[in-house]
Amino acid sequence: MPAGKSHKGAPAAAPASGGDRIGSLPDEILHRVLSFLPAQQAVQTCVLARRWIHLWKYATGLRIVGADGNAPVPFEEVREFVDSLLLLRGSSPLERFEVKVAGAAIDVRNLRLWVRYGMMCNVQVLRLKVHGNAPALLRFEDPPLASRYLTKLELRGLAFNKDFLDFSRCPAIQDLIIKECSFKHAERILSQSLKHINIVRGIFNNLSSRTPIHTPNLASLKLHVSGGRTPILDRMPLMVSADVLISSCDSCSRSDNGDCGDESCKGCIPNDTSSVLLHGISEAEKLLLASGSKTVYLQLKRSYSCSPYFKHHAYLKDLLIYMAATCPVYFQEGLEMLPYF
Amino acid sequence: MEVDKGKGEAEETRKVAEADRDTVTLKSSDGKLFEVSKEAAARLSTVLAGMIAGGSIDDNGTDLKQIGSEALENVVDYCNKHANSIPSAALISSSISFNTAPFKEPEEWERKFVDRLSHDALFDLVEAANFLGMERLLDVTCHKISEMMKGKSPDQIREVFNIKNDYTKEELEEIRQELAWAFYDD
């Protein structure tokens, strides 16, 4: 709902006719009101009146964002503020914690501490968005998260280390949104509880291996690979909807059709019954496959025609295969694929 | 025994009839009656859900003595609108775009719903939502209040909400010094 973001509430702002209605609300309601404000403004409400002096410490959400509530805030400008804030608010429970910072010299040690702080406060929704020194990504070398409260995690602008995306110790996590991050050093994405994954402009390993995604209870997948080898999907029998967009050139240097003939080549599909994507998405009701690259297309085509999954496909209601506008020729070939269904 | 049994059966029949209805009737503090979708009421209000499950819903209008008719009308309106709206928080988005809506951001219709309220009506609705245990409506109304505060100076906020500054000048100065880290942009 992008239109809603810039919304400015107005009509109800007419001055109150009677007394101090807001001050009469219970504390828990005011903690909720403050949870939606940028943190700096939430803290500053302590000067409004005595009623407000400690309310900010118990706000159920913390938003480390720009003053407009949307833009990232320069890291250098908020580092000291956030450290002081977290120290003084102690371990009051947090439902939502959002950190959206920008700058060329972001110190990852602070971010790691802030994330750990959120975990300590039993945060349910954690957002960490780094608008750093593009195209370099911030190397977020942290052990995997452990929390039985975390339900949603949103990350941006990070490069993950090997097991950070192993969510074995987050049994309640359902939503994972990862934008403009590097998975080059991530060994796997693993979770028994995840239901929705949205990976936008993900950069994967471009050398030997493919990153496995092992999330057997996934219901929806949006996967946009913008660099490196397409990750390999394990079986996901509950999948309802899959959107896969591959805009990287996913090929073995020795072949452009997905099979160079070398059995030991990890980049190619070794035989007719295995595939990179189809184990994961073949049970989806809605499937959208998109690509701008001939190689990827060939791999998909090859997989489809050979796949034992799709030949007896009973679930698929809506299939859209779409080639990026830059490759109109391949769209023609795409049409030829349709009789397989 | 016979009489008791007959009474029990009648009670049972009445309960079954109630369970069959797909609306419930709510009565405001000033005696006005409102019909609301039972499904939406049970889904959106923990208090109403408890009353429906516990059989304490009165066919002639369940008394909600803490809620005035204007606020109750807004509650009922919200429930009914919610029942009719396509749940955009649904699991699946068919859109080709890879964007997702931020967590708990109010929907467009929810924004419009609270935007049209007067100052007092908004606060009456917050209190009613709190009383009825309506988490989503509390989020939407609290979000609206935060929007009314956002970007405003303490003086402007006091003016909008009629907040009386009961600090002395010295106390205020002390707070600002103690929390200098939070007033770095002043």
Automatic annotation (TrEMBL), chain A:
Pfam family, one: F-box
Gene3D superfamilies attached to this UniProt entry: 1.20.1280.50
InterPro entries the UniProt entry points to: F-box-like_dom_sf (IPR036047), F-box_AtFBL13-like (IPR053781), F-box_dom (IPR001810), F-box_SCFL_complex_component (IPR053197)
Domain of life according to the entry: Eukaryota
Residue ranges, compositional bias (Low complexity): 9-19
Region entry Disordered, spans: 1-20
Limits of the F-box domain: 19-55
PROSITE patterns on file: FBOX
Protein name: F-box domain-containing protein
Organism: Digitaria exilis
Species lineage: Eukaryota, Viridiplantae, Streptophyta, Embryophyta, Tracheophyta
UniProtKB/TrEMBL annotation, chain B:
Domain SKP1 component POZ: 23-84
Methyltransferase in keyword set: no
SMART domains: Skp1
Record's keyword terms, sorted: Ubl conjugation pathway
InterPro entries: SKP1 (IPR016897), SKP1-like (IPR001232), SKP1-like_dim_sf (IPR036296), SKP1/BTB/POZ_sf (IPR011333), Skp1_comp_dimer (IPR016072), Skp1_comp_POZ (IPR016073)
Keyword rRNA processing: no
Residue span(s) of domain SKP1 component dimerisation: 136-182
Pathway membership, UniProt: Protein modification; protein ubiquitination
Gene Ontology biological-process annotations: jasmonic acid mediated signaling pathway; protein ubiquitination; ubiquitin-dependent protein catabolic process
SUPFAM superfamilies: POZ domain, Skp1 dimerisation domain-like
Region (Disordered): 1-21
Biological function: Involved in ubiquitination and subsequent proteasomal degradation of target proteins. Together with CUL1, RBX1 and a F-box protein, it forms a SCF E3 ubiquitin ligase complex. The functional specificity of this complex depends on the type of F-box protein. In the SCF complex, it serves as an adapter that links the F-box protein to CUL1.
UniProt subunit comment: Part of a SCF (SKP1-cullin-F-box) protein ligase complex.
Similarity annotation: Belongs to the SKP1 family.
Protein name in UniProt: SKP1-like protein
Higher taxonomy: Eukaryota, Viridiplantae, Streptophyta, Embryophyta, Tracheophyta
